[in-house]
């Protein structure tokens, strides 16, 4: 058991450090790079859409693996160690046993929580990317607020989550969970921006080698393919509509209001947990 804890903690620390390095290193990159020559034929537009979607989805999966998967497992281990002997052996909201680290549990956590969160967050990112701050760092912070106020309050920082009755001190657990969410979102935007920059460099073919594999191995890949299809056949018309000044301003207002509401919901949930 001790060896398993050390291995999981070691990989978790590596995941957190690599994610933090990526977030800081690429924090000032633009989310959307200049498109260059406009593709008019369907084949070229399909290639552009596939590469751009692949960059975003790769960012989500990398962030999900490193931060939510490996890093999240480390957070669970740290929280369990800090909670004392009274918490060991008790069940959590997810059906895990506090203090018990297993290979199957770790793989399942990384696959369903880590990579699953990456896919879901990527879908949301693609929908609202146009109305996020242009730089990866600020965009990730806004994304973190949106995630905390939706998926966050639905489970990991839900005041009714029994984990807060098992693990202690509660404020440390809250900080660890919220911090992991922030790092996940900023890593996603930073990696996606870096890959987007790479595929847009002049003279480069720009195909992400991992993109076809990503669409095959992730069950909800049809969502990504549907997005690619829409961008291929209706992308120009959609961009023309969304590019109108009134629509663009309305998008910023909606995302801004949503961030304020999500922030307020998150603060209320944290207050209830600590109260």
Q: Your description of this structure?
A:
- With 275 residues, the protein is mainly alpha-helical.
- The chain has one domain.
- The chain contains 9 helices and no strands.
- It has helices spanning 2-25, 42-82, 103-128, 136-154, 163-166, 170-199, 211-217, 221-242, 245-274.
- Helix 1 (2-25) crosses helix 6, helix 2 packs across helix 8 and helix 4 (136-154) packs across helix 9 (245-274).
- The radius of gyration is 20 Å and the shape is globular.
Essential attributes:
275 residues; mainly alpha; 9 helices; globular
Topology of this structure?
Layout lengths: L1 H24 L16 H41 L20 H26 L7 H19 L8 H4 L3 H30 L11 H7 L3 H22 L2 H30 L1
Total number of β-strand segments? 0
Are there runs of 5+ residues with pLDDT below 50, and where?
none
Alpha-carbon distance between the termini?
35 Å
Helix content: over 70%
User: Any idea what the shape is?
Assistant: globular
Write a short abstract of this structure:
With 275 residues, this protein is mostly helical. The protein has helices spanning 2-25, 42-82, 103-128, 136-154, 163-166, 170-199, 211-217, 221-242, 245-274. Helices cover 74% and strands 0% of the residues.
């Amino acid at each position: 058991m001790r060896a398993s804890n050390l291995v999981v903690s070691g990989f978790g620390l590596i995941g957190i450090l690599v994610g933090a390095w990526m977030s800081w290193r690429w924090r000032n990159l633009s989310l959307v790079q200049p498109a260059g020559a406009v593709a008019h034929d369907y084949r070229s537009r399909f290639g552009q859409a596939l590469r751009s979607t692949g960059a975003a989805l790769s960012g989500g999966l990398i962030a999900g693996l490193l931060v939510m998967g490996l890093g999240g497992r480390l957070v669970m281990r740290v929280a369990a160690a800090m909670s004392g002997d009274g918490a060991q052996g008790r069940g959590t909201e997810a059906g895990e046993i506090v203090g018990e680290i297993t290979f199957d549990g770790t793989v399942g956590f990384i696959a369903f929580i880590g990579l699953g969160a990456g896919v879901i967050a990527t879908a949301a990112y693609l929908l609202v990317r146009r109305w996020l701050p242009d730089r990866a760092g600020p965009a990730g912070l806004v994304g973190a607020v949106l995630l905390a106020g939706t998926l966050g309050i639905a489970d990991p920082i839900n005041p009714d989550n029994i984990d807060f009755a098992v693990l202690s001190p509660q404020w440390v657990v809250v900080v660890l969970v919220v911090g992991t969410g922030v790092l996940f979102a900023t890593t996603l935007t930073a990696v996606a921006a870096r890959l987007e920059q790479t595929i847009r460099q002049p003279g480069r073919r720009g195909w992400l080698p991992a993109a076809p594999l990503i669409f095959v191995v992730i069950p909800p890949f049809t969502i990504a393919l549907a997005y690619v299809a829409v961008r291929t056949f209706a992308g120009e018309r959609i961009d023309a509509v969304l590019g109108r000044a009134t629509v663009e301003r309305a998008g910023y207002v909606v995302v801004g209001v949503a961030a304020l509401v999500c922030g307020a919901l998150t603060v209320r949930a944290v207050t209830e947990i600590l109260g």
